[in-house]
């Protein structure tokens, strides 16, 4: 591949230090900052929509706390499982989440389980509606969180000779030693920017279109999971690079697909079945409890 000059018309140079500052040995990074901001934005948006839907605010925030805790645990746990070799020599690094290294699919699974566990424990009504509103907040929060990845350059993508690309010029950026190992430095596909744009499009679809079309509880939640997985499946083909004959990024695990793509396919199948179940259930008319209530009336 012909190396792309950093003077290309749409090539953006990013020379920002991934570390904002350090306190007592603790590094505060752009990745960590925007991840935290993404959580706040997602919770605030979900709480706002919940209040408009007449759901108790304390219930929303308590469920959000369970979702965030479960999401953080799940995000780190799945990342560690996918990169076990990186932690063999220092197990304490497993808990160094502030330095980066999370899985959005892990956050999806962990956050969903955390919120579902809280809803079951408190026997909350309208859990489907709350899941729908949480999904709308979550996809916007995910877009905000990815801004930190875009600044840091910690997602590796294929080198490109197209007019659009990213070049990281700060020596502490994870991308710098990889793409600057050749001369002139290669630009990489702006996959993080693509994902941010995709997240925002999904947010707009969920909030302004599907919320008015899907009146059944749970449909927005499953639409969110399906749409994000479909987007991530496609974008993942651009992730990873083999500059210098050494592959950097997620490994291919089956039929030319990566772990994230296999998870995406599984989620798309499960959510399609869930939507079909919801539609079928409603087409059958009122359930047993509802029929008893109507009979008594």
What keyword list fits this structure?
8 strands, two-stranded parallel ribbon, disordered C terminus, globular, disordered N terminus, 297 residues, two-stranded antiparallel ribbon, 9 helices, mainly alpha
How much of the sequence is in beta strands?
5-15%
Helical fraction equals 55-70%
Q: Could you tell me the radius of gyration in angstroms?
A: 21 Å
Uncertain segments of ≥5 residues (pLDDT<50)? 1-7, 284-297
* Strand order, sheet with most strands: 1-5
Count the E strands.
8
Distance between the termini: 74 Å
Short note summarizing the structure:
The chain has a domain at 10-212. 58% of the residues lie in helices and 9% in strands.
Give an overview in words:
- The chain is mainly α and 297 residues long.
- It has a domain at 10-212.
- Helices cover 58% and strands 9% of the residues.
- It has 9 helices and 8 strands.
- It has helices spanning 30-52, 57-82, 104-122, 127-152, 176-179, 191-213, 219-235, 259-283, 288-296, and strands spanning 10-14, 19-23, 26-29, 159-160, 164-168, 187-188, 252-254, 257-258.
- The strands form 4 sheets. The chain has a two-stranded parallel ribbon with strand order 1-5.
- Strand 2 and strand 3 (26-29) form a beta hairpin.
- Helix 1 (30-52) packs antiparallel against helix 2.
- The longest helix has 26 residues, at 57-82.
- Mean pLDDT is 81; it is low at 1-7 and 284-297.
């Amino acid at each position: 591949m012909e190396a792309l000059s950093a003077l290309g018309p749409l090539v953006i140079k990013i020379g920002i230090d991934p570390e904002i500052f350090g306190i007592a040995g603790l590094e505060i990074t752009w990745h960590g900052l925007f991840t935290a901001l993404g959580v706040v934005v997602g919770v605030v948006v979900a709480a706002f929509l919940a209040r408009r839907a007449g759901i108790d605010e304390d219930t929303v925030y308590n469920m959000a706390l369970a979702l965030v805790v479960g999401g953080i645990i799940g995000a780190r746990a799945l990342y560690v499982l996918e990169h076990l070799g990186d932690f063999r020599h220092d197990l304490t690094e497993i808990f160094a989440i502030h330095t980066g290294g999370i899985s959005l699919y892990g956050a999806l699974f962990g956050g969903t389980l955390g919120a579902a566990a809280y809803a079951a424990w408190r026997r909350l009504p309208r859990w489907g509606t709350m899941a729908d509103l949480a999904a709308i907040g979550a996809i916007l929060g995910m877009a905000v969180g990815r801004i930190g990845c875009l600044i840091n350059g910690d997602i590796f993508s294929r080198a490109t000779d197209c007019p659009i690309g990213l070049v990281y010029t700060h020596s502490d950026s994870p991308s710098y030693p990889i793409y600057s190992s050749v001369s002139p430095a290669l630009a990489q596909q702006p996959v993080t920017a693509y994902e941010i744009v995709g997240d925002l499009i999904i947010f707009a679809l969920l909030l302004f279109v599907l919320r008015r079309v899907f009146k059944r509880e749970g449909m927005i939640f499953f639409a969110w999971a399906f749409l994000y997985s479909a987007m991530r499946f496609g974008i993942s083909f651009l992730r990873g690079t083999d500059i210098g004959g050494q592959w950097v990024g997620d490994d291919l695990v089956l039929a030319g697909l990566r772990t994230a793509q296999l998870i995406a396919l599984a989620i798309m199948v499960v959510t399609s079945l869930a939507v079909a179940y919801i539609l079928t259930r409603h087409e059958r008319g009122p359930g047993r409890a509802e029929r008893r209530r109507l009979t008594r009336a």
